[in-house]
């Protein structure tokens, strides 16, 4: 199993039905990493060590993702996952927190910060997945293959593709559409994602996350309540379009927007140095 700097993950119980896996490393004020759709805490294996010299880094598996326990009855919409993120901050009693999220993790960083503003110091939202478009549209924009599967067959990709037909090749082809250079998707990380995809009930979770797509653009309604300073970071090859990025920026008071060159949607994997440089350069001295 992959690790982040050799750290063994722990399990954090949030309620009778919700527990999440997390890993902790580094020293300094707390920083929490929230991963993308269909990935897990190991997604940050190259970014987290770059931040651990300045922060105490917590990388978290969202409920039902990675190796976190699965409650198949849960809705897996934005409010459900947001409540879990807030639960992590409270259970670990984290304050003066920097929240860093990618894709749906970016949305959760923003909405969790709106929920508990007294605990959050700063937010870095990477490739925020909050555009109000059809089912799985960000993934559709990634490449013709994803669009053909989702649009033509009307089934979610990062989950069940016609039941049990998902395999490593299919997953890699679709995820590759989220990279400026698909060759930067590490084979061992893809293998881990593929292994996790075959956990019992995991594909049901993936299906529910995509079916709840309307909850992600609706989350923008909460952005006006964000009090902490926000940095929006987009890869220049991200799935979102420029007007969508500007709309998100306008919804956040005083937010700044940074664009990373030669970077796609999965920026923490493709360009961890660029992401870390933006975060560390914004750290008050």
In the CATH hierarchy, what is the superfamily of the domain at 10-136 and 213-281?
Alpha/Beta hydrolase fold, catalytic domain
CATH topology of the domain at 10-136 and 213-281: Rossmann fold
- The quaternary organization reads as single chain
Order of helices and strands: EEEHEHEHEHHHHHHEHEHH
Low-confidence stretches: 152-164
Average pLDDT figure? 89
Quantity of strands, as a count: 8
- Based on secondary structure, the structural category is alpha/beta
If classified by CATH, what would the architecture of the domain at 10-136 and 213-281 be? 3-Layer(aba) Sandwich
For the largest beta-sheet, the strand count, sense and barrel status come to: 8 strands, mixed
Structural account:
- With 285 residues, the protein is an alpha/beta fold.
- It has a domain at 10-136 and 213-281: Alpha/Beta hydrolase fold, catalytic domain (Rossmann fold, 3-Layer(aba) Sandwich), CATH 3.40.50.1820.
- The protein has twelve helices and eight strands.
- It has an eight-stranded mixed β-sheet with strand order 1-2-4-3-5-6-7-8.
- Helix 2 crosses helix 3 (104-115).
- It is globular, with a radius of gyration of 17 Å.
- Mean pLDDT is 89; it is low at 152-164.
Features:
single chain, 285 residues, alpha/beta, Rossmann fold
